[in-house]
Design brief:
Blueprint: H1 2-16, H2 19-24, H3 30-40, H4 61-65, H5 72-80, H6 93-105
Helix pairs in contact: 3-6, 5-6
Length: 115
């Protein structure tokens, strides 16, 4: 039953919410996404360069942004569909799009050198 529920939920998000993250990707607010990431994601993920600690077994936001198949839309949909390894956060579609836009903004940033 759990697998069927996840499939139906994912299908509903894809059909009913298709315009959500995809339509708002251009309008997403990366600065708001950074604030949300600090609040919701920084417990486990390294979300910016000034953060001192995170879980060792989860990817940093920069690592996610630099994946070859990264798109903000994929990340936004991922955030809206609960996954066993991640807590279920009550994010709206616009909040998921904002976090995805923030992660996308990290794609071109290079880490600071410590020379």
């Amino acid at each position: 039953m759990g697998r069927t529920y996840r499939y139906v939920r994912a299908l509903a998000i894809a059909v009913l919410g298709f315009a959500g993250p995809a339509a708002t990707a251009a309008d997403a607010d990366a600065n708001h996404g950074a604030d949300l990431a600090q609040r919701w994601c920084a417990t486990c993920h390294l979300v910016d360069g000034s953060q001192k600690q995170a879980s060792a077994d989860v990817p940093t936001f920069v690592m996610i942004a630099r994946k070859p198949n990264f798109t903000p839309e994929k990340v936004a949909f991922f955030l809206l569909d609960p996954h066993p390894k991640m807590p279920n956060f009550p994010l709206s579609r616009s909040e998921a799009a904002d976090i995805a836009a923030y992660i996308g903004s990290l794609r071109t940033k290079r880490p600071a050198r410590s020379d």
